[in-house]
Fold:
Amino acid sequence: MLSYLRTRTGRLDGLVITGGEPTVQEDLADFLRRVRRIGYRIKIDTNGSRPEVLARLISEGLVDFVSMDVKAPPRSYDRLTGVRAPINEITRSIGLLSCCGIEHEFRTTSVSPLLSDTDMDGVAGMIPDGSRFKLQTFNPSRAFDRSLRTADASQL
Structure:
């Protein structure tokens, strides 16, 4: 990957690290240091489950922009994600990003069969003032849950 990035210097401005969840990779900071030495700006997409990793990346100047998915209000996170969600860590990541001084955004994919208007209000209430919040449109055509794949997205 690093060799490829070197060949793209001058053609690409930055690199987006996405996943799965990139902060679970033990060598992430080392990889980002190498990318930074090549001269790229770095954006990371995260679910916010590992605030200690985010804090380290930010303090070392290894990221320029962070996009964090906020899946649901706390009461609905487990149901929506299908796992026991680390709500305390997610909340810590939201707080960290809101005051760290780097560009960031929070985003939620609006899946109306799974998130009600009340849920969406709950998510919006989690986003600190001054932080960007983006609602993403759900595309059902490739949904993992086949019951969400509909011919008419307006039904969602």
Observations:
- Residues 151-156 have pLDDT under 50 and may be disordered.
- Strands lie at 14-17, 41-46, 65-69, 103-110, 132-137.
- Residues 2-7+14-138 form a domain with the TIM Barrel fold (CATH 3.20.20.70).
- Residues 34 and 56 are 16 Å apart (CA to CA).
